Amino acid sequence: MISIVVGLIALAVALMLSSAIGKAPAGTARMQEIAGYIHEGAMAFLFREYKALSAFVIVVAIVISMFLSPLTAVCFVAGAVFSVCAGYIGMTVATKANVRTAAAAQHGGMPEALKIAFSGGAVMGLGVVGLGIVGVAAAYMLFGNIDIVTGFGLGASSIALFARVGGGIYTKAADVGADLVGKVEEGLPEDDPRNPATIADNVGDNVGDVAGMGADLFESYVGAIISAITLGAVAYPGGEGIMFVFELAFAGIIASLIGVFYARSSKSTNPQAALNHGTYVGGVIVIAAAYYLSTSIFGNTAAFVAIASGLVVFFNDTETTEIYTSA
User: CB of 204 within 8 A of CB of 174?
Assistant: First the structure.
């Protein structure tokens, strides 16, 4: 139950950040005009894609109902719907945040631009984890059977597959088309608004990197939780393993919220430094929570060592990547 409450808190914070983004200045009339075209194109693609996917989801749900169980089919549809919601939330906010980030950069410099851009990304992230934990926890509370809950993960994976691949194809096709028409034939600079294909290119960036990536992250998050509670149920038939997973997810969301507000409040003119600081703060909180949960639930530090090791490897990989690619 507490996982559902924390998930709803994450969604409430995402709504608050979205409202703050909407109140920020959107720039000149010309900026708003171009942003309107991008938003309109992105939403048109999204609705067209989801319309096609709805037929797929219905057919697969019928097959699952026939060969597995109707309850698994219900979870499958719920996973698909939640994934669609995550992509829709991210796309709506991202297309609003884009132009407002540019406007903030003109008047407030890097700190103000970072604040709006980071808020837009945070809405996507909090929407993913909020919807994910609420969906999985609610499904487990209702059915109490992990075999049925796996349908939720399958639904999320199905949407992620099409959203990621379809969005990626559209993104690259629009990018290549814009370059061919603008640079090769007309000699226009990249992203010149005089080139109509530039709008499609920017629509593609939002489609692939926001809606597609959002669905992909949602599927990964949900899949990780379902896999973990499955292993927890097998290793600890008394239910300690499942409780550990949900409480760790709860701690992770709280740590993410703290990291988000820490990064947003940063006055640094270096965006990467602000992002890193927020990530480190969240990581430290998760490590501390993992130690507490591991010792209090299992009576040992075995789970804590595994989690801490994974986080250390993650931080090492991100730092190494930054060293070799930041220049």
Answer: yes
Query: Residue 250 has what pLDDT?
Result: 87
Helix spans in the chain (H) = 2-23, 29-67, 70-143, 146-179, 196-206, 213-235, 240-264, 271-293, 302-325
Q: 3-state SS of 144-160?
A: CCHHHHHHHHHHHHHHH
Which two three-digit tokens encode residue 282? 């969240």
Question: Both tokens of residue 111?
Answer: 């700190």
Separation of alpha carbons 154 and 138, rounded Å: 16
The model's pLDDT over 32-84, given as tens digits with 9 standing for 90+, comes to 888 888 888 888 888 888 888 888 889 988 998 888 888 888 889 998 888 88
Residue type, 94: A
CA angle 237–290–147, rounded 5-degree value: 35
Q: Long-range pairs for 256-260 at CB < 8 Å and ≥24 separation? A: 256/10, 256/125, 256/126, 256/129, 256/282, 257/9, 257/10, 257/13, 257/126, 258/282, 258/285, 259/285, 260/13, 260/118, 260/122, 260/125, 260/126
Question: Using CA atoms, how far apart are residues 158 and 152, in angstroms rounded to an integer?
Answer: 10
SS3 of residue 193 by DSSP: coil
Tokens of 310: 């994974």
| Residue for token pair 């096609």 | 52
CA atoms within 13 A on the CB side of 240: 12
The model carries a pTM of 0.83
**Sequence ranges of the domains in the chain:** 2-250
User: Could you tell me if 248 and 103 are in contact, meaning their C-beta atoms sit under 8 angstroms apart?
Assistant: no
Q: What is the token pair recorded at 60?
A: 């697969």
Query: Are the beta carbons of 153 and 239 closer than 8 angstroms?
Result: no
pLDDT score for 170: 80
pLDDT of residue 266: 65
Give the pLDDT score at 291: 92
For the stretch 213-240, pLDDT in tens is 888 888 888 888 999 888 888 888 888 8
pLDDT on residue 263: 75
